[in-house]
Amino acid sequence: MDFLFNINVQFYILSYLVGGIPFGLVFAKLFTGKDIREAGSGSIGATNVLRVLKETNPALAKKLAILTVILDALKGIVILLIAKIIGLDISTLWAIAVFSVLGHCYSPYLKFEGGKGVATGAGVLLVMLPIETLIAFLTWFVVGKVLKISSLSSLLALIALIASSYVMHHDLEGIQTHAPLWMIAFIIVYKHIPNIVRLFQGKESKVI
């Protein structure tokens, strides 16, 4: 058990546990009594918060969805910034980023179920790859405004982020590989498989 006293391991565990906090589920339950896992897409993320709660209270649904996005992003950002401040190396930071997204998508508090990883992924990548993440955000915003399909805008934003990363960096600084970025991308895409199937079937719902 000596490995638990390693500061890197401690941050990996912390990032996973904090990443697993299901803010969308907590807020929906707290303010409306609804379990958003039982309606809509069944996800705990902001899109499903908005989709489920807007039926009864559109104004509250929008506020809770925005709050969910912000806190889902912050739970990755905060741990990374603390790790940076105390001087953990870049490879450890990337591992923390991956564990944060894993925690959100496979929460230890929800029997290892969770969200799609978009907001938490955006948060950690904003710290690690700020310019590329802003490009991705612009893509997400434009596609979302035009097509109003949350999953499609998120997936195209992810593609834009990966593509811009390769354009701007032959390899990610300090680790000489894009592997952590691909790990985060794989987790997010895997969690979106039901959405991808619905997209091909023309059945994916829009967020209006």
Overall form: globular
Helical amount: 55-70%
Rounded to an integer, what's the Rg over CA atoms?
A: 17 Å
Question: In percent terms, what proportion of residues is strand?
Answer: under 5%
Main sheet, how many strands, which sense, barrel? none
Mean pLDDT: 91
How many structural domains does the protein architecture include?
Answer: 1
State the end-to-end distance.
51 Å
Quick overview of this protein structure:
With 208 residues, this protein is mainly α. Helix content is 70%, strand content 0%. Catalyzes the transfer of an acyl group from acyl-phosphate (acyl-PO(4)) to glycerol-3-phosphate (G3P) to form lysophosphatidic acid (LPA). This enzyme utilizes acyl-phosphate as fatty acyl donor, but not acyl-CoA or acyl-ACP.
Plain-language structure description:
The model has no long low-confidence stretch (mean pLDDT 91). The longest helix has 28 residues. The chain has 208 residues and is mainly α. Helix 1 packs antiparallel against helix 4, helix 1 runs parallel beside helix 5 and helix 3 packs antiparallel against helix 4. The protein has one domain. The protein is 70% helix and 0% strand. Catalyzes the transfer of an acyl group from acyl-phosphate (acyl-PO(4)) to glycerol-3-phosphate (G3P) to form lysophosphatidic acid (LPA). This enzyme utilizes acyl-phosphate as fatty acyl donor, but not acyl-CoA or acyl-ACP. Its main location: membrane. Belongs to the PlsY family.
